[in-house]
Amino acid sequence: MTFTKLRAHNLLMAWVFCVSMGASAAEVEGHRFDDRIRVADTDLVLNGVGFRAVLMFKAYAAALYMTEKADKPAAVLAVKGAKRIQIKMLLDVDAKEFTKAVNVGIPRNSTEAEGAALKDRMEQFDRSIDAVGKIKKGDMVTLDFVPGKGMVFSLNGVVKGQTIPGADFYAGLLRIFIGDKPVDEKLKTGLLALATK
C-alpha cells in the first residue's frame, strides 16, 4: 500500500471512528439519551452524558441539556434559559439516598452564604423526594429548570412536589454534578464532554 493510499485509508478509518462515536455518544449503559429535547417551549441540546458508580455498582446514567453547549463548569452555570438534568436509574435506591446527595453535595460545592440561602429550599426538595419513597431501576428522574418558575422534579414524566423557585437553587443542584467537589469525577467529565464535539 502506497503512502497516499495508506493516508487515505487512515483518514477513512478516523472518519468512521468519529461517526460511530457520534452515533453512540448519547448512549450510556444501554440507555440512549435524545440529542435534543424541549423544556418550557425551548429547544435544548445534549451537553454530555455519563454514569455514577458506587463501589462496584452503577447507580444511574445521567445527561445534561441546555440551550447551548459549555465545556467548563463556570460556563455551564452562566448559560441562560431552561436546563435539564435527566437521570436513568440502573438500580433500586431509597429516596433518602437522593436527599443525602442534595444535603451533602450542595454545601460541599457552595459558599457558607450560598448554602444558608438555599437551606429552606433544600428541605422543600427533600420533602418532595421523600414522598416518592423508593426510586426503582428503570425509573427516569428529571430535574428541569424553567425560567421564571424554578426547578421542577418529575419521576417517569409525572411532576412530584412543588416547583422550587430560584436560579440559585438549580445552580446548587448543578454543582453537585459539575462543581469543584462533584459526586463523581467521571460523571462530571461526561456531562461536559459533548460540548467540545
Protein described:
The chain has six helices and eleven strands. With 197 residues, the protein is of the alpha+beta class. It has one domain (29-196): Chalcone isomerase (3-Layer(bba) Sandwich), CATH 3.50.70.10. The strands form three sheets. Strands 3-4-5-6-9-10-11 form a seven-stranded antiparallel sheet. It has a two-stranded antiparallel ribbon with strand order 1-2. It is globular, with a radius of gyration of 18 Å. The relative contact order is 0.17. Residues 1-25 have low confidence and may be disordered.
Number of helices in the DSSP assignment: 6
Portion of residues in helices? 40-55%
Morphology: globular
Give the C-alpha Rg: 18 Å
Question: Quick one: biggest sheet?
Answer: 7 strands, antiparallel
Helix-strand sequence: HEEEEEHEEHHEEEEHH
How much of the sequence lies in strands comes to 25-35%
Question: Could you say what the CATH topology is called?
Answer: Chalcone isomerase
Structural class call reads alpha+beta
* CATH architecture level-2 label: 3-Layer(bba) Sandwich
- How many separate structural domains? 1
User: What's the overall average pLDDT, rounded?
Assistant: 86
Low-confidence stretches: 1-25
In which order are the strands of the major sheet placed? 3-4-5-6-9-10-11
CATH class category name: Alpha Beta
The end-to-end distance, rounded to whole angstroms, is 32 Å
Count of β-strands: 11
